Amino acid sequence: xxxxxxxxxxxxxxxxxxxxxxMVAWGAVSFHNLPVEAYPEISDxxxxxxxxxxxxxxxxxxxxxTIPVEVQMNGIPHLSHLRSESIFGLxxxxxxxxxxxxxxxxxxxxxxxxxxVTLPDIGFLKRTTGAMPGGGVCPCLRFSGxxxxx
Length: 150
Prior knowledge:
With 150 residues, the protein is α+β, with helices and mostly antiparallel strands. It folds into two domains: 2-33; 45-144, Multidrug efflux transporter AcrB pore domain (Alpha-Beta Plaits). It contains four helices and five strands. The chain has helices at residues 2-11, 13-33, 58-73, 103-114; strands at residues 45-52, 79-87, 90-97, 124-131, 137-144. It has a five-stranded mixed sheet with strand order 2-3-1-5-4. The longest helix has 21 residues, at 13-33. It is rod-shaped, with a radius of gyration of 27 Å.
């Protein structure tokens, strides 16, 4: 097998030279089109949902806020991991998406699903979006004990 290949290469030098030049040109074009960034984005595509419910125990926050948010977020396309944590007065849900997904599209889908979450009647609800250090957006739900403004 190898002897045949070597014999072909020695007998057809111009064909081997043409293939070599073609591969070098292809490599040069590919190298030229390669995107170069000073600080490449190496973090995962993620969206964070932070829910504050001051004065509530971690178990109560988990049962009434974290679990309904998790249930609603399951099934979003390109979702690879869903992690959550509930502490005193705070629910933290982290949704990690695969690399083929667009981060803006992920945030839009999370906000759409977040509007469908059924939460207990706990007072005034304020939705905001804040920037996260890794480039993600944090859809925050903030609950206060005050009554809904009229």
